[in-house]
Amino acid sequence: MNTVEPIRDKRQIEAIRKILAAQNLRDAAWFTLGINSGLRIGDLLHLTVGDVRETPNKWRDRIRVTEQKTGKTKDFPLSATAKKALQAYLATRPDAKPSDPLFPSRKHGRPLQRGQAWQILRDAARAVGLTDPIGTHTLRKTFGYFAYTSGVDLAIIQQILNHSSPGTTLAYIGIRREDRDKVYLGLNL
């Protein structure tokens, strides 16, 4: 398996979101929730409608999932951006039941598959000119990258991503030479 990179440019994130929304609000919603939650793609794609809202008019403030990889419970608040994307998308599914997959495949009503999600994301990323290796793990890495570059303590990011060491987290989120150089050039003490 090839190593994928985070999306490091917010303009590219917005451009991808616009492309996805024009194609299918479902895709814009899983993309937005993915980059705002740090969930692994398997956990993201297996969410149900009931995981994000109790009734068509009552939204959950938090999402609680048991991670497939670790068996650990992850409990986190639903950001305003993710909630807005989900609301727009679920408005197109007025009859969705709480037990229905949140992001169903178009053909079978089962959850969207990892390979389908990868193809959708890769095509949108290429359409905006992104040349870095992209995959479904890009969503999780983008979350970690922007958390780190916005000043969130590395220990907190490490805990959120369930990593065993700070070094693992730094390597995982793709801190590059250019990112380190900004520190040297920006201090000017």
By DSSP, the count of extended strands is 4
Name the assembly state. single chain
pLDDT < 50 stretches: none
Amount of helix: 40-55%
Q: Biggest sheet, in brief?
A: 2 strands, antiparallel
Order of helices and strands: HHHHEEEEHHHHHH
Mean pLDDT: 93
Biggest sheet: strands side by side, in what order?
A: 1-2
How many helices?
A: 10
Cα Rg: 17 Å
Structural class by secondary-structure content: mainly alpha
First-last Cα distance: 43 Å
Shape: globular
Strand content: 5-15%
Describe the protein's topology.
Layout: H1 10-23, H2 25-37, H3 41-45, H4 49-52, E1 53-55, E2 58-59, E3 62-66, E4 73-77, H5 80-90, H6 114-127, H7 137-149, H8 154-160, H9 166-173, H10 177-187
Antiparallel strand pairs: 1-2, 3-4
Helix pairs in contact: 1-2, 1-6, 2-5, 2-7, 8-9
